[in-house]
Each structure stands twice: as structure tokens, then as C-alpha cells.
Amino acid sequence: MSVPSPQVIEKVIMKQASFIRKFSGTILVFAAALLVGCTPLYLSDIHTTSTPRSQLLDVAELAREPVATLGLLTSASLQGFNPPLSHALNAALSEASPPIRGIAAHETLNMLIQQGLGAEYSTLIASFGRGGILEREPLRRIGSALSSRYVLLPGLAEFNQVIIDRLSIYGWNIIQSRVTTLRLWLQLWETQTGTILWESSGEVTLATKLLRSEQTVPLDEIAQKLWLRMIQDNLLDGESGSRFIFSN
């Protein structure tokens, strides 16, 4: 379908008097962005909750020693999101204050394979899937091989997107919103004792104004913001929960 000319867009918008009176600022911004090819606008709500930190956790050591990241756990249908979400977690660790020197998941796996522990790692993750715990002895051996006292275990609980039409001109949608819901969880384990020291879950709901149909939501950037709030507010600052609204 051909794109209406700017003159047609302006004429139709001007006819929507009541709509313009209510949302005039929004329409002008989106119409201008459409004509000049700007990127989408975002409005997002982040909410996190966490358990209290264990007294065994040495927060200062998190900033001094490398913390290994295990592979992201999720359902089979969402496995394709593993690389961007794992990358986003590593970026969030570096962005935290103080920064945490994380060992990326793929580097963790490579190190274990090189030391002949690939099968043991697979068994460890499989046992977690059955019972929700990381078995002590395999975890201790993996921690020693990685020279990491702590490991992070991330997970993806939900990822969902819907597109909602907002304004249509001659069958051509001038404004659409993509609503994205992302739910993540994160656990911190001590490798030598097999103890879970802290866990957090977080949810972000993002409304993205789409000005061109081919535009996509930057999932890694969304995830990085959510991971960061879980790490900074809940893990490092010790808050039991947080809420953060951001726009772009």
C-alpha cells in the first residue's frame, strides 16, 4: 500500500478535531517523526522484588572477584532469546555501581568444556530443572574450575508482544503501539557451600510507538534496564523491591 503524502496526512489529521484537542501534542510529535523518519518513542514501567540478602554474602567481594554467569534458563520455545538476554545481563553487571566483573555465559561454558566439566554442567542444570536447586558437589567443582566463589543463574519467565492500532488513515496506520512484557529472574549462589544467597524477579511493560512497520523493539536494551534494576537496587543496595519508569 502506498504511503499518503504529507499533505494528505495533514488534511486528515486536521479533520479529527476532537481527537486533536485531546491528544494534540502526541499527534504532532508522531506526525513530525513519521515525516523525518525518527526512531520510536518508549514509555516503560519496571517493577522488581527480591529476597533479603543472606548474611553469608560479601557484597564488597562481588566487586573484587569475577562472578560467573550460568546459561539462561527458560522454556524450549524461548531458547532463541538466550544470546541477547545473556549479553544484556553481562552489560548490566558492568554498568552497576560498583561494577561487577561478570564472566559471560558462553565464556563460562567454554572454560568448563576445556576442563572436561561440560557433562557435569549439563547434569547440574538438569537437576535444577527437576528440583529447583543446584547440587552442592557439582557446583563446588564448577566454582573451583572457574575460580569463582559466586555464580549467577538467570532465567526468562515470559516474553510477549502485541501490536495495537491507534490511528488509521485510509487503511494505513499512522500510529501503532507495540506493548512488550518481559519477566526475568536472577539467583546468586555460593559455589563452595551450595547455598543460594539472593534471588530477585522483575517485570517490565514497555509501550513503543511504532512509526514504521519494520521497526522492532530493542529487546537487549529493555532487558539490560531490567537486569540493572534487579542488580543495583535489590542485590547491591539491598532493597526488597523497586519501581522505575523511564522513557526515550
Structure commentary:
With 248 residues, the chain is α/β, with parallel strands linked by helices. The protein folds into two domains: 1-37; 39-247, ABC-type transport auxiliary lipoprotein component (Rossmann fold, 3-Layer(aba) Sandwich), CATH 3.40.50. It is 42% helix and 31% strand. A hairpin with a 4-residue loop joins strand 5 and strand 6. The radius of gyration is 22 Å and the shape is globular.
Write a brief structural summary.
The protein has 2 domains: 1-37; 39-247, ABC-type transport auxiliary lipoprotein component (Rossmann fold, 3-Layer(aba) Sandwich). 42% of the residues lie in helices and 31% in strands.
| Major sheet description | 7 strands, mixed
Number of helices: 8
**Strand residue content:** 25-35%
Distance between the termini: 30 Å
- Please identify, by name, the CATH architecture of the largest domain: 3-Layer(aba) Sandwich
Structure keywords:
single chain, 248 residues, alpha/beta, Rossmann fold, seven-stranded mixed beta sheet, globular, disordered N terminus
List the helices and strands and how they pair.
Layout: H1 6-15, H2 17-36, E1 41-50, H3 59-64, E2 67-69, H4 82-95, E3 102-103, H5 105-114, H6 118-131, H7 136-146, E4 150-169, E5 172-190, E6 195-210, H8 219-236, E7 241-247
Parallel strand pairs: 2-3, 2-4
Antiparallel strand pairs: 1-6, 1-7, 4-5, 5-6
Helix pairs in contact: 1-2, 4-8
